[in-house]
Amino acid sequence: MTGTELINTGDNAEQERTRALVAAALDRSRARSVALTDAVDDGELVRQHSRLMSPLVWDLAHIGNQEELWLVRDVGGREPVRSDIDALYDAFQHPRADRPALPLLSPTEARSYVGEVRDKVLDVLDKVPLTGRRLVDGGFAFGMIVQHEQQHDETMLATHQLRAGAPVLHAPDPDPNPPPVAEREVFVPAGEFTMGTSTEPWALDNERPAFRTHVDAFYLDTVPVSNGDYLAFIDAGGYDDPRWWSEAGWAHRRQAGLVAPQFWSRDGDGWSRTRFGVVEPVPLDEPVVHVCFHEAAAYAKWAGKRLPTEPEWEKAARFDPATGRSRRFPWGDDDPGPEHANLGQRHLRPAPVGSYPAGASPLGVRQLIGDVWEWLDSDLRPYPGFAAFPYREYSEVFFGGDYKMLRGGSFGTDAAAVRGTFRNWDHPVRRQIFAGFRCARDAGPR
Q1: Cα–Cα distance measured from residue 326 to residue 172, given in angstroms and rounded to the nearest whole number
Q2: Element (H, E) at 373
Q3: For residue 319, which phi and psi values (nearest 5 degrees)?
Q4: Helix (H) or strand (E) holding 405
Q5: How far apart are CA 154 and CA 159, in angstroms?
Q6: CA dist 431 to 74, 228, 332, Å?
Q7: For 198, which DSSP code?
Q8: Residue 309 three-state SS
Q9: N or C: which end of the chain has fewer CB within 10 A?
Q10: What is the pLDDT along the chain (446 residues), one digit of tens a residue?
Q11: Closest by alpha carbon to 220, among 182, 184, 193?
């Protein structure tokens, strides 16, 4: 289940259908968490592979703790499993860099804990009515926890990318031969569209409520910027020319010594990259990944373009000119299938640019969902009428901070944690996330 069409769960048949879909989503997320943590030994689980990331064992126990807090204690009204560890796994109390020094659960204890919590959650799911209060309507609280676990699974996947050593994760490559793209960019007409949602059962508070907003006409790249495109920026001296960088971006480029995307290295006259322990030539036809917002903005300016704004991105992804309505996904209202997008860690790399034509928007824009998160030139702000639910710490405490928006998900994002309205954000200097971008430009008179 991806937080789908289930809205009215007042009758028993709908509630049972929701229970089955929730159980399948919980099982899928847990299978992924287990695979990511079982792939390495206990020493690797407790080690901090980067100060930007938690030890994998912290993520695992944190997943269980959030599940216990919301589903066992709140939804189920059950006695705590381990109330003594709540503070240890409170992400707001302990910065990631400090977590290795905490008295964390051992790998064995963490696995036992999350297993015990899950058993109780499945019992709660079987017995609690999925109607009557907002927290459980449509299975919302369960969907929130599924999305939370999948988001941490993607974080753990990023930790795997940062760890040194031999490859431990394996997956087949995407189709290397996508159909050609006829146009490099598409025209998005001016006008209003409906942004956000008021009906998606598992939508989080920052996606709500739906509202009408106007977007001026603009052009948007049909596909994300590729490694080959980005290499032209490097070869043209883009990292050495302050004309292309904002003041903050240039200061960061110099301070951090940026010369190429993270995980790239010079290999004779060319470039190689490290991907989950595999060193390989940089594939020119894949979307560029592991660039920060400042790098993306500098490339766009060098190319005579700019980054799209968040309303522009969502209009290009959801607006159907034929009907005037906003879709759930670029291709329509159906949940993502393997023909639509590269999601769920099915592959361990982005697919070549132009892939998944079945997932294109009505205007013909490809790969808006999956492959790489896309940096946008918008700050994290609440929508008109925003109300925090079910807790302020999910979104509200981040408003007004130093965050830039990311949309669309990556190859490491599960279908439950990405949709046309899903909003992600991060600091503009972050590069360990699976983020790339595409460019936009203003439209002159037509």
Answers
A1: 34
A2: strand 373-379
A3: -75, 130
A4: strand 404-407
A5: 9
A6: 36, 19, 31
A7: S
A8: coil
A9: C
A10: 444 444 444 478 999 999 999 999 999 999 999 999 999 999 999 999 999 999 999 999 999 999 999 999 999 999 999 999 999 999 999 999 999 999 999 999 999 999 999 999 999 999 999 999 999 999 999 999 999 999 999 999 999 999 999 999 999 999 999 999 989 999 999 999 999 999 999 999 999 999 999 999 999 999 999 999 999 999 999 999 999 999 999 999 999 999 999 999 999 999 999 999 999 999 999 999 999 999 999 999 999 999 999 999 999 999 999 999 999 999 999 999 999 999 999 999 999 999 999 999 999 999 999 999 999 999 999 999 999 999 999 999 999 999 999 999 999 999 999 999 999 999 999 999 999 999 999 997 65
A11: 184
- Domains annotated for the chain, with CATH where assigned, are 12-162 (1.20.120.450), 173-446 (3.90.1580.10)
Residue 43 and residue 163 in contact, taking contact as beta carbons nearer than 8 Å = no
Tell me the C-alpha distance between 303 and 176, whole Å. Answer: 26
Provide the residue type at 135 as one letter.
L
| Identity of the amino acid at 24 | A
Count CA within 13 A, CB hemisphere, residue 32. Answer: 29
Cut 0.70: pTM above it: yes
Altogether, the residues listed in the chain come to a count of 446
Closest of 389, 377, 390, 373 to residue 432, by C-alpha: 373
What is the spatial order of strands in the sheet that 435-436 belongs to?
424-426, 404-407, 373-379, 435-436
| Distance, CA of 11 to CA of 15 (rounded, Å) | 6
Residue carrying structure tokens 């394996």: 170
Structure tokens at 202: 């598992």
